Amino acid sequence: MSKPADKVIISCAVTGSVHTPAMSPYLPLTPDDIAQQAIEAAEAGAAILHLHARDPADGRPTPDPRVFDRFVPRIRDATDAVINITTGGSTRMTLEERLAYPLRARPEMCSLNMGSMNFSIHPAARKIKEWKYDWEKPYVEGMEDLIFRNTFRDIKQVLKVLGDDCGTRFEFECYDLGHLYNLAHFVDEGLVKGPLFIQSIFGILGGMGPDPENLVVMRTTADRLFGRDNYRFSVLGAGRHQMPLLTMAAVMGGNVRVGLEDSLYLGKGQLAKSCAEQVRKIRRILEELSLEVATPDEARAMLGLKGRDAVTI
């Protein structure tokens, strides 16, 4: 069991590649938007900032390092938060595209999806009455016939070129029970060493549902596979499931992730105006539960990160 004195790491996923501009006027799209929301989230208590990039012209997801360079250094200079760069990108990006900026930045942390999956939000297209840009509708509807690819060889390559060669550690994104076993395979092969940071994800179509029982199954399975002292458990609840599942995770000794990548809402029918609003809400819940929030340096120590001085960005 996690030690009672452990603090809770709040991660914030600022923009992602799933939601589109028509879904919320508050979704950060430009480098200025992303930088501002990330900095505000860090000030509100997020120890880790999980970052994607978007084309500033129309908000579509982009892997372009030149766009990342317009906001990542600004965030680094304004905060001491751990910068976590996606290697997931989007379902339409190749592995080479997804790795382009992480290999350049050599960050302390990157996300790593632990398997291929039918990742989709295509039913959401039926709820949108008016699209802001021409790319949005085919992008969302097209997810119905796309697979997010991360084969065992893909994962092995990421572990080598980012983990071994760059000293980057990973937020292991597990969308299903089998993803924990995929991670255990790489641990058994000696390609991954602890402490592990396991991000269990609930509520994405194609992955595990948001049932509270599934959170218990993921937690107990991770205990069996890795031993509770050898990993840090974190939870991401998609959409309306965000705050209830995060509260449950915290009570179970886990860490939490918020942000407009994961949910556009602050409460029922209430759009979040910023990522910082979600950070402040979950922080308030944690503190009401008498749980302490980890600082960035405390998170670095808990996760065995190399430190911001070893990052090239």
From TrEMBL:
Keywords: Metal-binding, Transferase, Zinc. Pfam families: BKACE. Its cofactor is Zn(2+). This is 3-keto-5-aminohexanoate cleavage protein. It comes from Ramlibacter pallidus.
